[in-house]
Design goal:
The chain has strands at 4-7, 10-13, 18-24, 34-39, 46-52, 56-59, 67-71, 77-82, 91-97, 113-114, 118-123. By secondary structure, it is mainly beta. Strand 4 and strand 5 (46-52) form a beta hairpin. The protein starts with a strand and ends with a strand.
Length: 124
């Protein structure tokens, strides 16, 4: 069973940066989609950034230019570099892995494995 585990969340002031990491035991990043989602209090879970293969990347409009999704050379860790953070970025961030979708997508129904989430809090 693939179980993603997130780390790197925390509290920062507006304009600050955080880097989230996601690893999954027994899993090596392949051609299938990986993504970061977030869920703020009282709001639905939304896709933030997705990566598939070597060249498919998709970002939510509100984070474009501020967030960067990537993997490491060993293909075992997924990252989300978050710069110029804003209070509206405050949420629990989740790592998600697809087992059969080969393009980047921000739709949750295409992902099969989910982490427990890590809290990101941005103060004004």
């Amino acid at each position: 069973q693939v179980q993603p585990v997130e780390s790197g969340g925390g509290s920062v002031q507006s304009g600050g940066s955080l880097r989230l990491s996601c690893t999954a035991s027994g899993y090596t990043i392949s051609i299938y989609a990986l993504a970061w989602f977030r869920e703020a209090p009282g709001k639905e879970r939304e896709g933030v950034a997705s990566l598939a293969g070597e060249s498919f990347i998709k970002y939510r409009d509100s984070v474009q230019g501020r967030f960067t999704i990537s993997t490491d050379n060993t293909k075992k860790t997924l990252y989300l570099q978050m710069d110029n953070l804003k209070p509206e970025d405050t949420a629990i961030y989740y790592c998600a892995i697809s087992r059969d979708v080969g393009v980047a997508t921000l739709y949750a129904q295409f992902y099969h494995y989910w982490g427990q989430g890590t809290q990101v809090t941005v103060s004004a």
